[in-house]
Amino acid sequence: MRDMVEIGMGRTARRTYELDDINIVPSRRTRSSKDVSTAWQLDAYRFEIPVVSHPTDALVSPEFAIELGRLGGLGILNGEGLIGRHADVEDKIAQVIEAAEKEPSAAIRLLQQLHAAPLDLELLGEAVAKVRDAGVVTAVRVSPQNARALTPALIAAGIDLLVIQGTIVSAERVAKNDDGGEPLNLKTFISELDVPVVAGGVLDHRTALHLMRTGAAGVIVGYGSTQGVTTSDEVLGISVPMATAIADAAAARREYLDETGGRYVHVLADGDIHTSGDLAKAIACGADAVVLGTPLALAAEALGNGWFWPAAAAHPSLPRGALLQVADGQRPPLEQVLNGPSDDPFGSLNLVGGLRRSMAKAGYCDLKEFQKVGLTVGS
Fold first, then answer.
1. Domain extents for the chain?
2. Which of 126, 149, 191, 299 is least enclosed by beta carbons within 10 angstroms?
3. 333, 13 contact by CB (below 8 A)
4. Which parts of the chain have pLDDT scores under 70?
5. DSSP label at residue 194
6. Which PANTHER family does the record associate with it (predicted)?
7. 75-84: buried (b, 16+ CB within 10 Å) or exposed (e) per residue?
8. CA torsion angle for 122, 171, 112, 94 (degrees, to 10)?
């Protein structure tokens, strides 16, 4: 039953919960972390760890995507980012970081200028081919307004998964697209593709269920909210209570599973996940995998050299993200961020190891079972 509160005469609001508000409750049995599996499968593709990269130039180069894929996760290239606009993307990012160190607003302006360059589909195709040729799952993110225009070239380049992602994504986009064409009807669009589609973000049960009915293989919950980085709350008044949003999407997944007689749509949690404990809580709330930004930006392989920003920071008229330095000096390799060993007592390293240990302490040996773990809400 939803917890509704009156916020004024004739106006009610739902009480919701963040990941920080909940706690995992161990069962009467415990297991060895060696017996725990963190594997999951999205359509035909199996992943050994439930970790997906946020599709931002601050993280994902072809090399980063390859390394994350080698380690069992999924790296998503930003199909509308700098890798498809500039051949010297590392030099351009170095310029952005230099600007950020002097004046944050100057860095945003530079990002906007760099993203104003036209997309070079040949350059983008080369990045896709590099990931594909390495033998890992190849995924690219596009926005809803540009999905129709960019997808044919991406499929021709050899992508395995298409990610259609915006701050908020609905089953039918009402506004006309950037090319002046008709609105994107996701159900029709997805049905015509030969590759599985992950779509999002969604914030509530109804929108999640509607996206599942489009034929999406996965639904992203949230928009990568991170304190000090994403500013959709300040700019749009929209924020995401991730514990509630994940649980609502998981409920939509169960409803859709019954509705279709067995079609399972994966839920990917994107936002407010900074530590291994947050990762465990997101899975416990019902997520199949998590989309990580700042935790992966610590890695030496991350393109931002210790800096992170979301793709929305480069919006030409209404940027909704800031640049944040998450690491200075020597940075750990991605393998250490994910699998340890850790010398950090606060959960920023050995993320997957922390998840495994949490699952073992609670008595569960796989991710789907762990979604049934008991939870409490702090006072």
1. 19-377
2. 191
3. no
4. 1, 168, 170-181, 379
5. S
6. INOSINE-5'-MONOPHOSPHATE DEHYDROGENASE, INOSINE-5-MONOPHOSPHATE DEHYDROGENASE RELATED
7. bbbbbbbbbb
8. -60
User: Positive or negative, the Cα torsion across 242, 246, 251, 256?
Assistant: positive
Residue at token pair 């404990």: 277
Helix (H, G, I), strand (E, B) or coil at 252: helix
The rounded distance, in Å, linking the Cα atoms of 230 and 228 is: 6
Residues 206-244: tens digit of each pLDDT:
999 999 999 999 999 999 888 889 989 899 999 899 999
pLDDT in tens, 7-63: 999 899 999 999 999 999 998 788 888 899 999 999 999 999 999 999 999 999 999
> What tokens does 202 get?
């969604």
Reported pTM: 0.95
Strand partners, 199: 164, 219
Residue 47 in contact with residue 75, Cβ under 8 Å?
Answer: no
Angle at 359 (CA atoms; ends 357, 363), nearest 5 degrees: 115
Homologous superfamily assigned to 19-377: Aldolase class I (3.20.20.70)
Peptide bond into 347 cis (omega under 30): no
With H, G, I as helix, E, B as strand and everything else as coil, classify residue 172. strand
What does the pLDDT read at residue 180? 60
First to last CA, the chain: 19
